[in-house]
Amino acid sequence: MSVRRPSARYEIVVDNPAGVSRGVRFAEIAGVEIPERPLRLRMVDDGAVHRVRVASG
């Protein structure tokens, strides 16, 4: 999925191989883990493309 801010784009991939319906096991942006739970992603309008990966479980 892709989310746009006025000049930034966030490309978000969700991995859910077990088919679970809730819970975040791991999340990262630009290869850096996001430890905060509940998961919060601070979106900035910086003109860049940001890659986010979330794994459920």
Structural features, described:
There is one protein chain. The chain is mainly β. The chain has one domain (2-56): Sandwich (Maltose phosphorylase, domain 3). It contains no helices and 5 strands. A 5-stranded mixed β-sheet has the order 1-2-5-3-4, with no helix packed on it. The chain is elongated and about 35 Å long.
Mean pLDDT: 94
The general outline is elongated
Low-confidence stretches are none
Report the top-level CATH class: Mainly Beta
Share in helix: under 10%
* Number of strand elements: 5
End-to-end distance? 19 Å
Instruction: Give the helix tally.
Output: 0
What distinguishing features does this structure have?
57 residues; mainly beta; Maltose phosphorylase, domain 3; five-stranded mixed β-sheet
